[in-house]
Design goal:
single chain, mainly beta, outer membrane lipoprotein receptor (LolB), chain A, about 15% helix
């Protein structure tokens, strides 16, 4: 019996050590993702969004985005809808944060009103797409707990594979599984699992282009929802870095202008 107890104690100790090592390696990789994408300051870009239902019917939207890097906190982002006419003038403003819930607002020109997105509703779909409001915030290391799973090659790219567990209590996800290029430290694929821990959707990052000899941006992204059969395809273009934006360009008061 004593030997059995000793063996059981050793197994528990080894298991705990493995979990700690996995968490530390996962956090180390996450810190590199963050480090490799620091210093871009601000940018603008154009975006084409294609919504597709499970019958294959498509609808197109044109948007403009602006983003501002914030030292010591999450980034600020502004999305403006250009086409079609029924969404023209709609604007979405997001202030990402590290240690508290993100601040998000949407302006609807049809009702001439700025609506705040509540913390409990950030798992809802953004403007009919397969992206949730919480998907639109910037990546901040402290928003998650991490677990390194394995190394794996995907689409000819050698990747680290991580599990991410959100610290945000209102998150719509139990976890995410992220494939990270182990040279450039950029995301290649992300699986999202719902609160029942069932696969909900997968985001594929394609066609990376490098800007300012440092910053990689995916020019084509596909979000597939495995539970409702819908998808959203995003195509980026006309990136302009160091566009001169300041915090004033991301003021809530400017949404209705």
């Amino acid at each position: 019996m004593k030997f059995n107890n000793i063996a059981a104690t050793l197994m528990i100790a080894l298991s705990s050590t493995t979990v700690i090592a996995s968490s530390e390696k996962g956090l180390s990789i996450a810190n590199k993702i963050d480090l490799y994408d620091k210093g871009w300051s601000n940018f603008s870009a154009k975006l084409k969004m294609t919504l597709e239902n499970k019958e294959g019917q498509k609808s197109l939207r044109s948007l403009k985005i602006k983003s501002l890097e914030v030292n010591g906190d999450g980034d600020k982002g502004l999305i403006s809808f250009i086409k079609p006419n029924d969404v023209y003038g709609t604007k979405f403003l997001s202030f990402s944060h590290v240690n508290k819930a993100d601040d998000q607002w949407i302006y609807m020109p049809s009702i001439k009103r700025i609506k705040r997105i509540s913390s409990a509703n950030k798992s809802g779909p953004f403007m009919g797409s397969q992206f949730a409001y919480e998907d639109l915030s910037s990546f901040e290391v402290d928003k998650y707990k991490y677990k390194y799973i394995r190394d794996e090659e995907i689409n000819g790219i050698k990747c680290h594979v991580l599990e991410l567990y959100p610290n945000y209590k209102y998150s719509g996800y139990k976890k995410q599984i992220l494939w990270v290029d182990n040279e450039r430290y950029i995301p290649i694929k992300n699986e999202y699992y719902d609160r029942k821990n069932e696969l909900l959707k997968t985001l594929h990052y394609n066609n990376y282009v490098q800007y300012l000899d440092k910053y990689w941006r995916s020019m084509s992204q596909l979000m597939e929802n495995h539970q409702n059969g819908k998808s959203t395809h995003i195509e980026m273009s006309e990136y302009i870095f160091l566009a001169g934006f300041t915090a004033k360009d991301f003021s809530r008061n400017r949404l209705s202008r």
